[in-house]
Description:
By secondary structure, the chain is mainly alpha-helical. Helices cover 52% and strands 9% of the residues. The chain is built from 8 helices and 3 strands. The chain has helices at 2-12, 32-51, 54-62, 75-86, 90-100, 128-138, 156-159, 161-174, and strands spanning 20-23, 119-124, 144-149. It has a 3-stranded parallel sheet with strand order 1-2-3, with helices on both faces. The protein starts with a helix and ends with a helix. The mean pLDDT is 93.
Amino acid sequence: MGARLALIYALEYGSEVENLILESGSVGIESDAERQARKESDDQLALAIEDNDRHWFATKWSEISIFDSQSQLSPIVHDKLFQRRAHNSPYALAATLRGSGQGVMPYVGHRLQELSMPSLYISGALDTKYTTIGRDVFGKLPSFNHVIVDGAGHNVHIEKPQIFERAVLDFLQKKG
C-alpha cells in the first residue's frame, strides 16, 4: 500500500518529489468491474476485522500467500512481524481498507509517463506478481531502474534488508 500511495503522491505533486523509490507496488486495478469487486471483498474483510480481534487479523494477514517467502525468516523476526501486525487497532485497519484499499484507489497506469524524477522499483524474485509489474510496467519507463532481489518475496526490506539498503543507497548515490 505504501508504494501505491507514494506513486499517487508523486503523480499529483511531482515537483515536490526529487527521487521516487517503490517497493513491490502496483498502478492499481484498471477495470472498473474488477476494482468494484475488490472493494466489496475489502469491505467484507473490514467487517471481519471489526468482528474479530487484532490477533485474528495478524494471523490471517501472515497467512496470505504473498507472504509465503517470510517462512525463511528467523523466529525472532516472525514474532516481531506478528506483534507489529497485532498491535494495530481493528477499527483503524478496517478504516484503512475502506479508505485506501485497492478497490478504492485510482488506477494510474495511464499516467506513468508524467513521472520524470529518477525512480527505483525494488521487488523480490519470489514475488512473481510484483516482479512482473516491475518489469512490464515500471521497467519500460526511462526514469525507472528495476532491482530484483533473489531469495526475497513481497517485503524485500524485511526479508533481505542489507540488499534492500544497498539498492537504495546505490540509487541515491548515482543520483547525486
